[in-house]
Amino acid sequence: MKVGVLSFAHVHAAGYATQLRDMAGVDVLCSDPDAASAAPGELRGPALAEQLGVAHVDSYQGLFEWGPDAVVVASENSRHRPLVELAAKHGVDVLCEKPLATTVEDGRAMVAACREAGVRLGVAYPVRFSPAYAALREAVRSGGTGSVLTVAGANNGSLPAGARAWFVDPELAGGGAMMDHTVHIADLLDDLFDGARAVDVYAQSNNLMYGGEVEVDTAGLVTIRYDNGAVATIDCSWSHPDHHPTWGGLELQLVGERATVEMDAFGQVVSGFDETNRRGVLLPWGTDLDGAMLRSFLFGGADEGAVQVADGEAGLRSLSIALAGYASARAGTPVPVG
Amino acid sequence: MPELAVGLIGAGGIARAHLPAWLELGAVVTVFTPDDSGADLAALHAEQGVRVARSLEELLAGSEAVDVCTPTHTHPEVAIAALRAGVHVACEKPLALRVEDVEEMIDEAERAGVLLFPAHVVRYFPEYAAMAEAVAGGAVGEPAVLRFTRTGSYPVWSPWFADPTLSGGLLVDQMIHDFDFARLLAGEVVRVHAHVRGHQQAPAPAGCVAAATAVLTHASGAISHVHGVWGLPDSQFRTTFRIAGRGGVLQHDSSRTKAFRVISQGEAAPGEGIPATNLTESPFLTELREFAAAVRGGPPPRVTARDGLEAVRIALAAAESDRSGRAVELGSRNKDDVQEVVAR
After folding, report:
1. What is the average pLDDT score of chain A?
2. Best residue in A148, A150, A243, A244 for a mutation probing chain B (most B CBs within 10 Å)
3. What is the value of ipTM here, to two decimals?
4. For A264-274, what is each residue's pLDDT tens digit?
5. How far lies A263's CA from each of A67, A142, A208, B99, B206, in Å?
6. Looking at the domain B5-119, which fold is it?
7. Does A94 lie in the same domain as A240?
8. Is B338's pLDDT higher than 80?
9. What stretch of H or E contains A227?
10. Do B227 and A219 touch (CB under 8 A)?
């Protein structure tokens, strides 16, 4: 199977390329023609490909001429659409980095293009493949928790501007922390609630931590009301310290009428302390979520009841929640989900 | 100096938690309730000198301070009677269920020149006190985003808790602890949004659950999330917080800080055989010691009547938001606006 990686803009691109490089039966080819547009000091293009030990081609056209069976789009958020449309035009299945786009208009166009071309559009929400999420999903879907009353979730990370400056560019990223970190938990709940829809969103945000350094929101709380009666609040803040040994994490507690359960997607770690470098150590040993997601997209899921890769429509729904969050934060009131 | 003469009003759960603290402090305690429960509680502690008063007037006449541990909806009547008698008042949280009632209580206290102390005991929990001191000292920089959770079993032991007209409900009765703390750390609150789910009416059947989520916006721009649960009967009491700013993060989860744990004890039921142990001083004792010292002219307690008022204001705004589905603005301190906010 031939799999292409389009752009190294996203911090996850190197991880995908490495996963695909090591995956039995997969050939990988990468292309990062916009590398020159990156901020100074960011390793991109052929240099990053060489470091990762993956092949690189200078143009997207060249990559599609290679005849990929599937591609992964890892460009900046607002630059997903042309690459997804290019994949659709070539009849190639495409897994797009999250969020699907930065506007509903772009998202709808991408979904339509893939549908018309008859290609699969997946959105990269790897936490769906967390065994902790699978257990939570089973607890809810089996009726073990009873009706869901509230969900309190937190997806905190450190400010990603150091690795890739475009994450704090309002145009390229479509926002800040609320765009980056609302959507993971919103997507989990989209899958978990199995057809229930978000009704309205109330959100508040600030940039108290990085005022003067970046222009986007760096802290946010997003409350989502669902038509199944549940209400969820997500802390989407980039409030994880820069020098902490991990990038952040994703946790949530779900209160049901018959049980309360909680998950920690990145909680399986050995912890310690590195005296030489005078810093804490956290060694993750849990499931490789990116790998599980890529395998599911490329080779199909285990069985029908298992978690599937988020499709374009699901990607559009989680994007709509983040966008409603921005509208709400501006208005100071709850706003309907468009 | 003679021992402090304390009138304990009420004989329910919180009165029973306060009474050992008062005895530890060497206070002479007299109990009053309108029913027989006060006499029963006093009889249990007769050997420690606890007596019962036959009327509120008798209690007030013999007390230097009273400790109001009655159901919330009765706080204004009881506290105002005590304040008018010139007696110092410690009053369980929430001070009252209407802003104007709290304001009247504060006016009466000022007129009488006595203390009105809102018993927000979380201020005296050592983990919260340590965090608050560190945050005040700049440990996280300016707080930007704060989270608090609080879980306990549904308070079915007393029927008034489940009735929002008597207790204020989950947002006002329980989550007010964290509203107060969020305001302590990040300053005045200007906007509140909240939703309550689950069972919130009397009677509360066994096994019912209520849960609520609230988002506060502070005048500084900081934002706070408060999640409260009145849970299933097997819910362990648990609190968590996470306070984040540019300068760092402070976090706590009470389920991970148990310094003494029973790992196995065969077929004995939990708590049987090996007794549960308080590993720190009871926060009720710390709280009431500070109040008692202030009554005797010592430094004022760390929680002021105005703190109690603002906590009520935030909690009532949260309840109003749940009813209306809208965010409630608290930006104005104009009295008419505030009354509009709390109008039912």
Report:
1. 96
2. A150
3. 0.95
4. 999 999 999 99
5. 41, 17, 29, 39, 27
6. Rossmann fold (3.40.50)
7. no
8. no
9. none
10. no
